[in-house]
Fold this protein.
Amino acid sequence: MNERRMIPLDVRLMNLCAAILFVGVAVAFVVGLVREVLRSPAGAVAGITIESGMAKVNALSLRANAVPRLSGNFVTMDLQSARASFEQVPWVRRAVVQREFPNRLRVRLEEHVPVALWGEEGENRMVNTHGEVFEANAGDVDVAALVRFIGPESQAVRVFEMHKVLAPVFSKIDWDVESLELTARGGWRVQMVEGASMELGRGELTEVRARIERFVRTIESVTSRYGRSVSDVETVDLRYADGYALRIRGVGRVDTAAAPTPSAAARTQQR
């Protein structure tokens, strides 16, 4: 304590300034060294390992669409930005980018699997197995094998879920869905591959499904009553509380109750 009091004030100030100067020089040296290391070619990304089972994206497409967007070196690269660069490549749904020491990147890619076309004819948008709308070249897939969904894009998942439930019900009478539409007023409309067009009415999945199941249970008995088959049905309107209306080829319009009887369940007007 006495020795410290004996050191003059000006000497103590000089020692403090020297210590501060030393720390400043050391920090500047470290910062400069780090900058040089980061700028050095040794810090560059030497290669990218792609993990993917994707059939529609190849190395040329990634090199042309994703790699030019990458910025920085192995240390400074923003992995979130790198992920976004890969996810902008057509057919890529999701990308995970990780550093792999000492100087490589590892990228895992998930591909969009299309289940339907989205929108009107001529659009390059599709719906994947998650009910998400994405844009890609429709020429890369067999368009004829895909159903078409139409509706507000914000309702894509709802349309997707509706199709998943209704398609197996229609299959009981060997009908396949060609297009499913959610109209601006909230009504459901379906076109069958076999030619019939249907108005399903409004409602949530369970309500619409109940109407479809009622139709499927009774349609064969209704058509057979007029010497026709299910394949002769042209239009169907399910927007009734206790039945449905349909037009049968060669017969005309038929209004039938939900549980038709052989005596009188339908009123027919011959063409």
In short: The first helix runs from residue 2 to 6. The first strand starts at residue 47 and ends at 51. The two ends are 119 Å apart (CA to CA).
